[in-house]
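re: ur msg from earlier - yeah i can do the zinc ion complex, just paste it... oh wait u already did. ok heres what im feeding in:
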Amino acid sequence: MSILKVARMGHPILRGKARPLEPAEIRSTRIQKLIDDMFETMKEYQGVGLAAPQVHEDVRLFVAGLVRNSDEEADENEDEDGEDVPLMALINPEITIVGRETVEDWEGCLSIPDIRGRVSRAEKIVARAYDRAGKRIEVRASGFTARVIQHETDHLDGVLFFDRMKEFGSLTFLDEFGRYWSQ
Ligand SMILES: [Zn+2]
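and the outut:
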C-alpha cells in the first residue's frame, strides 16, 4: 500500500464534479488498490474521511472511519469525540436527508490543513451507494457519522466545508482550537 499525496484547497480537482464508477470498474485492480491506498492515507494523516478527488482521482468514491491502532483500542474510554465512525468505502453515494433536524459542529478537512470551523449539517441521513465489492448498500447514519458522510459526499461535487458555513466567525487554527474550543 502507498501513502497518497493530498490535494490542498486551491487545487482545481477539489472544485470539479467527479465521475461515477460502474460496478465492473469498482472491482478492477486499479480501484481496489486506490481504496486500500486511501484507507492507508487517511490513517497516516489521522483523518476520519477521505474522498478520491482529495488524492487527485476524479471518481465518486470516498473512505471513512476512525482507524484506531491497537494501543488506542485499549483506552477506548479516552476517545474524545465519543462517537466512532465505522470503516466504510462508499462509491457513487446518494444522500437522502431524514427529518428536519440539523446540528452545528466542528469540522476539519485534510485539504484545508490545521483549520477548524463550525458547520451545520443534517442530523440523520440515509446514504445509498455501492460498496467496494460493487454491491448496492444502504447506510443509515446520524450524528458524527452522518456529518462525515455529508462532508465526503460534498467533495465528489467540488464542495468544501467552508462553502457550507453560514458565517465564518468560528474559523480557528488547530492550535487555538485545542487551546480554546476543544472542550
Ligand atoms: Zn474534506
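cool cool. Residues 90 and 174 are 28 Å apart (CA to CA). ping me if u need the other ligands too
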